[in-house]
């Protein structure tokens, strides 16, 4: 009995700092903060009902991960809106991480995660997100959960962590404010193609469908913003058009 007990790993509950880190990361991914917004330690501690110590630790971690910017004697804030090069770099990173993750699913595909992704996609299909910040946050969070479920199929904690950081970095959900979620039907249909490939057990088809979806959706989104360029050019190893070309001339 004693030897059996000694083989068990002790499960440690998440620390307050871990919980605050995860919650702020979720809010960033959902577009709850505008680019450049300051995040005060005292205010966040008050809202979370905790002392400032775990909040300070969580924000320091987020800054180390590049999700927040820390300025001495000023504090923490979200990064400013990304340039075309930053947006393109983010898109390429998402393609590399997300589509390739589906090629490295070990063992049988977890149908429970597929069913969860299907339910989330149905929510995206049936929801009227409107044009308000709350509606856009709802869409962003559902979309994040769909893609997180796909990453979960790889059963790789490091990929899950990298994916979470990718979703929390750029602040592009704001481009839908006042416009609504453009191409909602296309997003749902593209998600369905990924799921169909996975249900057939065709990892390559699913990875290709996910790659196409990421590129198509991000290029659609970029056209709504101040940016101009081509993610497809970057994926072919060519410099994207737009402000990246201008930067190359400087």
UniProtKB/TrEMBL annotation:
Pfam families named in the record: FCD, GntR
Stored Gene3D superfamilies: GntR ligand-binding domain-like, Winged helix-like DNA-binding domain superfamily/Winged helix DNA-binding domain
GO MF, any single term: DNA binding
Cross-referenced PROSITE patterns: HTH_GNTR
Coiled-coil region list: none
Alphabetical list of InterPro entries matching this protein: GntR_C, TF_FadR/GntR_C, Tscrpt_reg_HTH_GntR, WH-like_DNA-bd_sf, WH_DNA-bd_sf
Residue stretches making up the HTH gntR-type domain: 14-81
Keywords from the named record: DNA-binding, Transcription, Transcription regulation
Presence of the UniProt keyword Transcription regulation in the record: yes
Segments passing through the bilayer: none
Keyword Transcription among UniProt keywords: yes
Name by which UniProt lists this protein: HTH gntR-type domain-containing protein
Organism placement in taxonomy: Bacteria, Pseudomonadati, Pseudomonadota, Betaproteobacteria, Burkholderiales
């Amino acid at each position: 009995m004693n030897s059996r007990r000694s083989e068990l790993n002790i499960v440690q509950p998440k620390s307050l700092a871990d919980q605050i880190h995860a919650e702020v990361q979720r809010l960033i991914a959902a577009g709850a903060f505008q680019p450049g917004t300051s995040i005060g330690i005292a205010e966040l501690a008050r809202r979370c009902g905790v002392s400032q110590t775990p909040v300070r630790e969580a924000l320091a971690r987020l800054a180390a991960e590049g999700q927040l910017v820390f300025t001495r004697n000023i504090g923490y804030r979200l990064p400013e809106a990304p340039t075309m090069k930053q947006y393109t770099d983010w898109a390429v990173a998402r393609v590399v991480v997300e589509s390739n993750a589906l090629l490295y699913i070990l063992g049988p595909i977890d149908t429970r995660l597929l069913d969860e992704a299907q339910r989330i996609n149905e929510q995206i299909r049936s929801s009227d997100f409107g044009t308000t910040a709350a509606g856009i946050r709802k869409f962003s969070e559902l979309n994040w959960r769909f893609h997180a479920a796909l990453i979960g199929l790889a059963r790789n904690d490091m990929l899950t962590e990298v994916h979470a950081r990718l979703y929390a970095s750029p602040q592009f959900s704001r481009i839908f404010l006042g416009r609504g979620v453009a191409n909602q039907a296309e997003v749902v249909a593209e998600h369905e193609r990924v799921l169909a490939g996975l249900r057939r057990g065709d990892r390559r088809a699913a990875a290709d469908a996910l790659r196409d979806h990421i590129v198509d959706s991000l290029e659609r989104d970029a056209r709504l913003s101040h940016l101009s360029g081509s993610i497809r050019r970057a994926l072919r190893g060519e410099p994207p058009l737009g402000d990246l070309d201008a930067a190359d001339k400087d």
